[in-house]
Amino acid sequence: MAEPYVVTIARGFGSGGKEIGTKLAEKLGIPVYERQILRLASDESGLNEALFGMVDEKLTGITLIKKLRGIPFHTVAEPQDAAFISDVNLYNLQSMIIRNLARSESCVIIGKCADYVLRDYPNVASFYIEAPRADCVRSIVGKLGVTEKEARRLIQKTDKYRADYYKYYTNGGEWTSVINYDMTLNSARVGRDRCVEVLEHYARVKFNL
């Protein structure tokens, strides 16, 4: 049986990263995980999935997090510990699921700091998808049916909490830094479908598929 491989996708809001990751998974014939990570972490821990949704790529309860700074970003707390439902432990549970996936099956993982969680795994290719603000606005307006003003607000808010989340859990890492990824693509210049083709070709070369 072939060794499992993982493709991680980080994405600016409105850049089409989720769409690109989903289509890439279809091309490669492997599953894609985004919010499914939350369900798997919920199943593993017995915690309500809504708790994971509340901290999905965002920081909440910062004061509590700071008080629990002693919890490493890789150790899952025991159910009897007060820290079991802390933001840090929810992150650790998701990270555990991501590492388990990387060891057991080929897949595409969207978001969740997966590039950082799997940074030491040789069977991983990580990509960042971005687009100019105007293109992201058009995408969000078309997808969500909101005004351009609201789309701009949503993009700014979402990208900020993703960046803050990444910086916190990577000990100061920059979410948009090119050195985090095998490749960064501008989906507006390349085109979303061509982004899929480029990433598919790269994955097939890197993993000898």
Tally of strands: 5
CATH fold name: Rossmann fold
Helical segment tally?
A: 10
**Distance N terminus to C terminus?**
12 Å
The low-confidence runs, each spanning 5 or more residues with pLDDT under 50, are 62-85
CATH architecture title:
3-Layer(aba) Sandwich
CATH class (first level) name: Alpha Beta
Helix and strand pattern: EHEHHHHEHEHHEHH
SSE-based structural type? alpha/beta
Radius of gyration: 17 Å
Number of domains: 1
CATH homologous superfamily title: P-loop containing nucleotide triphosphate hydrolases
Q: How confident overall, as mean pLDDT?
A: 82
Largest sheet: spatial strand order: 2-3-1-4-5
Largest sheet: 5 strands, parallel
Strand content: 5-15%
Principal-axis shape:
globular
Helical content stands at 40-55%
Overview of the structural elements:
This protein is of the alpha/beta class. It has a single domain (6-204), classed as 3-Layer(aba) Sandwich (Rossmann fold), CATH 3.40.50. Helices cover 52% and strands 11% of the residues. It contains ten helices and five strands, in the order βαβααααβαβααβαα. It has a five-stranded parallel beta sheet with strand order 2-3-1-4-5, with helices on both faces. Helix 1 crosses helix 10 (192-206) and helix 2 (36-45) crosses helix 5. It is globular. The model is unreliable at 62-85 (pLDDT under 50).
